[in-house]
C-alpha cells in the first residue's frame, strides 16, 4: 500500500508540510532510538527481543531519514522527495526483516539453529574416550533462547558411567549452547542408525 501510494504521489505530486514532517519524524527518532537501546543487550540471545530491536532500530533510522527529507522539502519544495522516502521506508523494512523471517521459519521447521556447527559437535563427541562412532546427531531450537541435542555414541566398552556422560553434557551446554542434551550409548553390536542420518554416506 505504501509503494502504491508513493507511485501515485510521484505521478501526481501533492503539497507536503515539510515542517510538520520534520517535527513528527524527530520525535520518532527519539522515541524509537531509546526503545531500540533498551532492547540492544538481549537481541543476540533471544529471537523475540531481536525482532523488537530490529523493529525499533529500523523505525529510528527511517524517522531520521524522514526528518532530513522534511527539512529538505521545507527549504527546496522538492515534493517528489516525500514519495521517494516512502519507497526507501519499504526497502528498509523488507531488508531489515528478511533475516528475522528466515530464522523464524528455521525454528518452525526444527532446523539447525544459526551459529551451530554440527560438524564441530560431532568431532567433539567422537573425540571422547571410548567413543568409536557418533550417529543420529540432531540439533534443533527448543525456543528463541534454548537449543536441544540428541545423539547416539557407539562405545564398545559399554556405558562409561553417569559422571562421564554428565561431563559431556556440561561441555555441550557451555561450549556449544546445548541447553538440553540426550545421549544414547550403543555397544555397536547392531545397526542403530536411523534412515535420516547421512553422515557416513
TrEMBL record:
Q: Which UniProt keywords apply?
A: Ion transport, Membrane, Transmembrane, Transmembrane helix, Transport, Zinc, Zinc transport
* Boundaries of every Cation efflux protein cytoplasmic domain copy: 113-186
Record keyword Transport present: yes
Q: What is this protein called?
A: Cadmium, cobalt and zinc/H(+)-K(+) antiporter
**Ranges for the Cation efflux protein transmembrane domain?**
2-106
**Record's family?**
Belongs to the cation diffusion facilitator (CDF) transporter (TC 2.A.4) family. SLC30A subfamily.
Per UniProt, subcellular location reads as: Membrane
Q: Which organism is it from?
A: Paraburkholderia aspalathi
Task: Indicate the transmembrane segments per the record.
Answer: 16-40, 52-78, 84-101
The cross-references to Gene3D superfamilies, in alphabetical order and at most eight, read:
Cation efflux protein transmembrane domain
InterPro entries found in the cross-reference section: Cation_efflux (IPR002524), Cation_efflux_CTD (IPR027470), Cation_efflux_CTD_sf (IPR036837), Cation_efflux_TM (IPR058533), Cation_efflux_TMD_sf (IPR027469), CDF/SLC30A (IPR050681)
Q: How does it sit in the membrane?
A: Multi-pass membrane protein
The gene from which this protein is expressed is czcD_1
